[in-house]
């Protein structure tokens, strides 16, 4: 159910003379249980969901509503705990667009968490998509279900090096987004933000492609105003451990507007707030995946600080709607894309625990009681963060549809399937 209590059957919108609506079940089939497909004719059971787990299988089948045909053709063998891949694959149906409607779209960082969901959506909509990624935090497996499709291309490339391709739109996402990843090599993070953005803006200038950069709420730092509007200039520590990312994104925005003013590049700037969803790497230290995986494993949930700091969380499908809406609008100013529902981290931990219990009960598993333990707050972690999304509402007619409960439930089911599979 969405925020208005209506059942969600599709995601996307019809706006600006542009239709980006796709069925939610087709999308789900791409990220839920991607390794578990067998054909009924080969006599195998569906992956680990063998007879004794028939009930669980039924639950999952109901959840993904019979779209298993579009999942990757990889077969899980429970006896040897191995996966075999077939070369033949059936792709989800993609729209057939006339040449004037079909765009050549470059997605940098397209093998990452956000990028892979964007790629799914753009592919189903019928565009020609090229993914450029160095696989630092992303993985080929996130988009492997498209490999071989005539509209899809994947290129291993580091955006700090120049790159040339003909394209109509560039979604520039390449940059590690979680603190352990971007702090792992701070200098490389700054290089990626600066040189990578410089190279992609140069490409946009040469090809006259429209350029969208995924900036971040981190550019507001530890904000002194609440909620944060796009006009707020931020409060960032320029030499702290998070600066490589925060200042990197700030300079990337500066570069973007430099190319816009000086060279007339058609730019879009999305300031993304905390986003969660399937395909998030559970080991990358972000709060939602941390909490869910710990609760599912029956481990104590680690909460940094006293739990009074607040955050807002948006579900991945809402973000992708916002990014596509922004790209196809006329808005060149920065736009916040996030969910305004604010939670203290303490309350959020309890909510995650309740949803994990609920899903486990529904699946016939007796949930283990887990505790919430506190650890010291990391340096420069902001106390409050909530987007003011008035601009997105006004100029994009965009607002989040997914409730936190619904998004979390989907996420819990995803991680549960991944754990059963043994891949996390
Ligand atoms: N997820 C969020 O909550 C969030 C919030 C704000 C902003 N963003 C922004 O959205 C974008 C995507 O974030 P994500 O959560 O998917 O992160 P992610 O780490 O999952 O994905 C980033 C992708 O970029 C690739 N990459 C990194 N450095 C690269 C380089 N030098 N050359 C080529 N590819 C490179 C990685 O391999 C990965 O596939 C990032 O720009 C991030 O700053 C995300």
TrEMBL record:
Keyword Transmembrane attributed: yes
Pathway: Nucleotide-sugar biosynthesis; UDP-alpha-D-xylose biosynthesis; UDP-alpha-D-xylose from UDP-alpha-D-glucuronate: step 1/1
Domain of life, per lineage: Eukaryota
Xref: Pfam families: GDP_Man_Dehyd
EC number in record: 4.1.1.35
Catalytic activity: UDP-alpha-D-glucuronate + H(+) = UDP-alpha-D-xylose + CO2
GO biological process, one term: UDP-D-xylose biosynthetic process
Segments of skewed composition (Basic and acidic residues): 377-392
Reported cofactor(s): NAD(+)
Name of the protein: UDP-glucuronate decarboxylase
CDD domains the record matches: UGD_SDR_e
GO molecular function terms listed in the Swiss-Prot or TrEMBL record: NAD+ binding; UDP-glucuronate decarboxylase activity
């Amino acid at each position: 159910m969405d925020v208005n209590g209506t059942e969600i059957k599709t995601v996307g919108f019809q706006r600006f003379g542009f239709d980006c609506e796709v069925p939610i079940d087709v999308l789900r089939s791409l990220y839920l249980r991607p390794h578990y497909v067998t054909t009924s004719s080969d006599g195998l059971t569906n992956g680990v969901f063998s007879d004794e787990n028939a009930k669980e299988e039924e639950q999952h089948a109901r959840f993904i509503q019979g779209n298993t045909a579009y999942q990757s053709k990889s077969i899980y063998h429970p006896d040897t705990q191995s996966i075999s891949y077939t070369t033949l694959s059936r792709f989800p149906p993609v729209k057939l667009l006339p040449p004037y409607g079909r765009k050549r779209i470059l997605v940098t960082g397209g093998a990452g968490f956000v990028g892979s969901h964007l790629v799914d959506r753009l592919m189903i909509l019928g565009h020609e998509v090229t993914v450029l990624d160095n696989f630092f935090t992303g993985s080929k497996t996130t988009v492997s279900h498209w490999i071989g499709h005539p509209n899809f291309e994947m290129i291993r490339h580091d955006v700090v090096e120049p790159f040339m391709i003909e394209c109509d739109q560039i979604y520039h996402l390449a940059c590690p987004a979680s603190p352990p990843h971007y702090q792992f090599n701070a200098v490389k993070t700054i290089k990626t933000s600066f040189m990578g953005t410089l190279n992609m803006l140069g490409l946009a200038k040469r090809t006259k492609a429209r350029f969208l950069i995924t900036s971040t709420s981190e550019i507001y730092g530890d904000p002194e105003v609440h909620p944060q509007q796009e006009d707020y200039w931020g409060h960032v520590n320029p030499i702290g451990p998070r600066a490589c990312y925060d200042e990197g994104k700030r300079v990337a925005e500066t570069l973007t507007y430099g190319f816009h003013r000086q060279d007339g590049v058609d730019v879009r700037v999305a300031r993304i707030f905390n986003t969660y969803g399937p395909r998030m790497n559970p080991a990358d230290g972000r709060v939602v995946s941390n909490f869910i995986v710990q609760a599912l494993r029956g481990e104590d949930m680690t909460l940094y600080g006293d739990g009074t700091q607040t955050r807002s969380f948006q579900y991945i499908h809402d973000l992708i709607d916002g990014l596509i809406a922004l790209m196809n609008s006329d808005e060149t100013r920065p736009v916040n894309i996030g969910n305004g529902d604010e939670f203290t981290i303490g309350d959020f931990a309890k909510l995650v625990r309740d949803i994990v219990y609920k899903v486990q009960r529904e699946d016939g598993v007796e949930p283990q009681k887990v505790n919430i333990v506190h650890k010291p707050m990391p340096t420069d972690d902001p106390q409050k963060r909530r987007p003011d999304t008035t601009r997105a509402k006004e100029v994009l007619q965009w607002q989040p549809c997914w409730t936190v409960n619904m998004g979390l439930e989907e996420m819990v089911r995803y991680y549960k399937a991944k754990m059963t599979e043994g891949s996390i």
